[in-house]
Amino acid sequence: MKTYKERTQSILQKAEVQKRKKRRITLISVLSSVAAVLLAFNLVLFVPYTVGDVDITKYSSSEYYDIIQQLYGLTYSPRKTNNFKEWFGDVFKAGSAPINWGLATARPGASVDMSAPSGNSYQETTLNQTDGVTEGDLFKRSDTHIFYLGYTLVNNAPSYNLRVYTVAGEDSQMIVNYKIAPDDETSFSSISQREMYLSEDLSTITVISSCYFENGGRSHTAVIKLDVSDLYHITETARTYISGKYVSSRIADDNLLVISDFTVRSNTDFDNVSAYVPQVGKKDSLKPLAANDIVCPKNADDPHYTVICSLNDKLDVNDSVALLSFSDDVYVSQNNLFATHTYDKKVKTGDNQKTEYTRDMTEIRIVPYKDGTFGDTRAVTAEGSVLNRYSLDEYNGVLRATTTVHFSSGLSNRCMLYCYDLDTLEIAAKVVNFAPAGESVMSARFDGDTAYVCTAKTYINITDPVFAFDLSDLNNITYKDTGTIPGYSLSLNSFADNTLLGIGYGNNSLVLKIELYKQTDNNIQSVAKYEEWGVIFSDEFKAHLIDAENGIIGLGILGQSSARYAMFRYDGYELVEIASTETTTRNVDYMRATVIDGYAYILDEKGFNVIKLA
User: What's 248's DSSP letter?
Assistant: First the structure.
């Protein structure tokens, strides 16, 4: 029998065990409660949920309501979010102070007479697509000076510099390096999207570039006017902005036409008109385009606008138009602008119309202009897609177009040539399936009554027929071709000695091919060819020097270890290399050259070189 002490000790031990059990139960209960609270907190903060639908009927009284309805279908999708993002997102947003670039006028480094000598005149350097329509480029020239729009990088962001050189053969030198800075709270956003013009009276330079607005985070196009009448004291006189990144521009009818690409973001805020309608004007007074200046096709499938703006000498806005879902590669004639919208069309075939496939179709929108203003737009439709602006041409009231028809069912591509009467918008003539099955239009060039078209297969072995169409009689279109030869041309141009110049690829994409063709009574023959293997060259047409008068071709060529600028002359029999100089840059897109009085002047974003030609 246990003593009193033993019984008491046993009771105390049992009590302690019970206390420990209770403490464990309490701790587990507390931890469970805390876990439940944390789980609930996590569910409240971090579990994703879908934002509800947007009721756009509240915008029914807006002039842009029809546009909002189309954009809603193209840009809006239910958005995943959570309460942490919604409640605390602004606290964790990264911010950066805008860069103040400053604006400095560089003085010439040598004592040079900067006044324009008598008889000095403007000389066009760019091979324009249409007579009477001038294109922007990285360089322009007069008889006595060459202007190049270069760039420098500051904190990995570009600032532009206008470099001016004298035309004096081997004694040529840079006399001005004028820096062009972005506005406050903006930055130039792409060195590849910059061009300029020199006025015919040599008094002004107009610079056009993509830029980025820090406030609002949107791309715009900046148009900057510089007074260069006194090269010692270059001054900025005007600056205008257009929504969207810079695409291209023209001077036509004494007005500047600027083309930009404005994209509407997903889940856009329709309370903010600037988020979905392009704007133009001065930086602090941008105005949205009116609804009746916006063209929206019924089958719009891409939420971006091709914005076309007409500016006068003071960079005031004459007129503007925006085309929703159209290509930004616009062809400009002396009377009209042409933009394309390609879409898929379903086709049913078979005995019971149960087999279905799609083929591409293109709406070509015609925007007339006169005295700086745009008229009512019209449209024609073609089978297939239009490669680029060089595949379109207006001549004697007829729109000519080359297209490639693609099919979804595995059918082979086919190539088409269309001619439209611009008065009636009816098809005046067309040529169907003129190229071998499976080929696509790779380049085109119209020259009066002749259309040159290069088609190719680009699968394994590249093949290249070149066609020449006689369009002098639309009731009886005839054409000749080279037959199948290796490679294809990225561009075609009329050249010296009644030849056709093609610059492109040989039998693969690492072979540069420069080839000259000539028409005979029966076909088109290759009369001269230069090929170089294992190199890269620019597919930017403006980076190629094409001097048909002197039979000279020049372009930058990038090899594995070095880059050079090479020039060739056609002597009536073959292409002979007449100059080659290593460059300090490997960027062939920014190389430019011109030939003046037996000297080649070669420019790029880093330097300037002069070579005396033999």
Answer: E
- pLDDT score at 507: 87
Spell out where 293-426 has E strands.
294-295, 304-311, 317-324, 331-332, 336-349, 355-370, 373-374, 378-383, 392-395, 398-405, 414-421
pLDDT tens digits, 96-136: 333 333 333 333 333 344 444 457 899 998 989 999 999 99
- Those residues with Cβ within 8 angstroms of residue 19's Cβ, 6 or more apart along the chain or in another chain: none
Cα(547)–Cα(307) distance, integer angstroms: 33
Q: What is the mean pLDDT of residues 280-285?
A: 94
**How far apart, in whole angstroms, are the C-alpha atoms of residue 180 and residue 448?**
40
Residue 586 CA to residue 67 CA, distance in Å, equals 45
User: What is the enclosing helix (H) or strand (E) of 83?
Assistant: helix 83-88
H or E, element range at 74? helix 65-75
Tokens (6 digits) for 186: 């903006």
Query: Helix (H, G, I), strand (E, B), or coil: what is residue 143?
Result: coil
Note whether 545 and 499 are within 8 A (CB).
no
H/E element holding 513? strand 511-519
Mean pLDDT (the chain) is 86
- For 95-193, strand residue ranges (E) read 122-123, 134-135, 139-142, 145-154, 157-166, 174-180, 186-188
128/526 Cα distance (integer angstroms): 25
For 249-275, give the DSSP string. EEEETTEEEEEEEEEPPTT--TT-GGG
Q: How confident is the model at residue 563 (pLDDT cuts 50, 70, 90)?
A: very high
Which amino acid appears at position 63 of this protein? E
Dihedrals φ, ψ of 556, to 5°?
A: -80, 140
What ranges in 196-235 are assigned the alpha helix state H?
none
Amino acid at 443: S
* pLDDT surpasses 60 at 201: yes
